[in-house]
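User: Can you recover a sequence for this backbone? Please restate the input before giving your answer.

Assistant: Of course. Working from this structure:
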C-alpha cells in the first residue's frame, strides 16, 4: 500500500534552473549589501525595500507568477534556486518575502480577475508588501479557532473586528491577507471561515510592533475596530477560507526557507575552523552536511510536486518539521563547541551571530505551524491516526 514516504520521489534541478543560479550569484555580487554575519543571519527578517525592488526590477519578485500579471513565469525549481541563493548569502528578503511566496500565488489561484489585475503587478514591481493574519491571542496554535469576525453591512461590504498577533512586518506592509470568521462560532472549526485582503491604512486598523528577545521588532499585534471592507476584499467564495489557507501553507512550509535559517552561522563557524586547521569538530560538521543533503533532497521532491501542479500539504509539513529541527540543532552545537575551548581566540562576529540565532531559533518551530500540529498532520498522512 502506498504511503506518504512514497511521495518523496528523488528530484533534480533542471539544467535551466542551474544556469539561473549563476545569474542570481552575479546579481548578489553586485547588489548584496556588505553586512557582517550577525546581520546576514537575519535574512528572513531583514527588511530592505530598496533591495527587494532591485530584485523586482530583474523579475525575481513574483518569479512564478504569469507574465500577463508582471511575473517572470518561471517554475518552482527556479524559485527554489533563487531562495536558496538569497538565504545562503544572507540577503535581506523580508520586505517581499510573504507576497512572493504566498500572497501572490494565493491571489492568482483564488482571487477575482479584479484582484489579480490590481495586486499582482504591484507585488511583482515590489510596490505592495503583504503580511499574513492567521495567529490570534487566546487561540495558541489552533488556527481554526479564530475569533476575528467580518459581518455583512446593510450598506454593502463587511465590518471587521478582532485581533491578530505575531504578524510579521505588519507595521511595514501595505496589505494583510487575513483568515477570519464570517459565519458560525469558533466551535464550528473549519466551517464559516473566509479570507480577506485588508488595506492596513484603513480607518480602524491599529498596528503595534512587538520587540522580541533579540531586540528586533518584526512582529506586530494588529487590532481591527469596525473596519469597513468592500465586497471586493473577499478572496474567493465566502466560507472557503480553510481550503485556501491550507493550500497557502503548503507554499510556506515546503521550500528551502525551512532548511537555511541558520546557514550563515554554520558557514561562519566552518570558515573559522578552516582558518585554525586541524580536525576539531569534523564529525559535527560532517553530520550537519549529511543532514543538509538529505533535507535538500526532500525539499526538492516537494518542489517537484508543486511544479507538477499538486498541493503537497502533508509532505511539506514533514519537510518543515525536519528542517526546523536541523536549523535549531546548529546554534546549540556551535555554542557547545565554542564552550569546549574557552581559551581560544574570540571571533566577535561569530559570537554575535551565534547569540542572535540562539535567541531567535525557538521561533523556527512555531512559524508556519507548530511542531505538535505538524506531527499530527504527518501521523495522519502515514495512517497512524
Amino acid at each position: 500500500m502506498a504511503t506518504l514516504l512514497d511521495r518523496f520521489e528523488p528530484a533534480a534541478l533542471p539544467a535551466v534552473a542551474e544556469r539561473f543560479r549563476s545569474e542570481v550569484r552575479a546579481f548578489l555580487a553586485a547588489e548584496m549589501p556588505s553586512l557582517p554575519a550577525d546581520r546576514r543571519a537575519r535574512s528572513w527578517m531583514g527588511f530592505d525595500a530598496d533591495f527587494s525592488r532591485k530584485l523586482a526590477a530583474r523579475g525575481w519578485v513574483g518569479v512564478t507568477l504569469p507574465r500577463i500579471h508582471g511575473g517572470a513565469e518561471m517554475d518552482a525549481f527556479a524559485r527554489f534556486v533563487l531562495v536558496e541563493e538569497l538565504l545562503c548569502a544572507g540577503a535581506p528578503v523580508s520586505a517581499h518575502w510573504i507576497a512572493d511566496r504566498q500572497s501572490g500565488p494565493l491571489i492568482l489561484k483564488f482571487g477575482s480577475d479584479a484582484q489579480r489585475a490590481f495586486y499582482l503587478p504591484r507585488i511583482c514591481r515590489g510596490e505592495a508588501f503583504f503580511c499574513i493574519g492567521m495567529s490570534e491571542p487566546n487561540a495558541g496554535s489552533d488556527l481554526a479557532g479564530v475569533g476575528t469576525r467580518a459581518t455583512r453591512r446593510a450598506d454593502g461590504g463587511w465590518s471587521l473586528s478582532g485581533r491578530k498577533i505575531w504578524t510579521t512586518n505588519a507595521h511595514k506592509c501595505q496589505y494583510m491577507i487575513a483568515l477570519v470568521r464570517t459565519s458560525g462560532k469558533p466551535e464550528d472549526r473549519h466551517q464559516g471561515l473566509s479570507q480577506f485582503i485588508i488595506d492596513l491604512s484603513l480607518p480602524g486598523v491599529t498596528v503595534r510592533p512587538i520587540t522580541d528577545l533579540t531586540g528586533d521588532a518584526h512582529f506586530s499585534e494588529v487590532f481591527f475596530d469596525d473596519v469597513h471592507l468592500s465586497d471586493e476584499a473577499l478572496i474567493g467564495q465566502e466560507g472557503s477560507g480553510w481550503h485556501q489557507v491550507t493550500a497557502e501553507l503548503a507554499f510556506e512550509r515546503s521550500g528551502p526557507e525551512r532548511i537555511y535559517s541558520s546557514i550563515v552561522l554554520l558557514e561562519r563557524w566552518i570558515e573559522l575552523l578552516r582558518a585554525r586547521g586541524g580536525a576539531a569538530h569534523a564529525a559535527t560538521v560532517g553530520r550537519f552536511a549529511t543532514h543538509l543533503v538529505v533535507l535538500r533532497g526532500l525539499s526538492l521532491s516537494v518542489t517537484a510536486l508543486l511544479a507538477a501542479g499538486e498541493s503537497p500539504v502533508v509532505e511539506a509539513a514533514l519537510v518543515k518539521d525536519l528542517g526546523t529541527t536541523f536549523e535549531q540543532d546548529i546554534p546549540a552545537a556551535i555554542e557547545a563547541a565554542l564552550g569546549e575551548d574557552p581559551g581560544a581566540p574570540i571571533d566577535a562576529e561569530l559570537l554575535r551571530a551565534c547569540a542572535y540565532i540562539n535567541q531567535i531559533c525557538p521561533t523556527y518551530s512555531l512559524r508556519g505551524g507548530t511542531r505538535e500540529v505538524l506531527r499530527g498532520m504527518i501521523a495522519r498522512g502515514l495512517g497512524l491516526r
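That completes the design. The beta strands are 130-133, 149-152, 158-164, 175-181, 193-199, 205-210, 219-229, 234-235.
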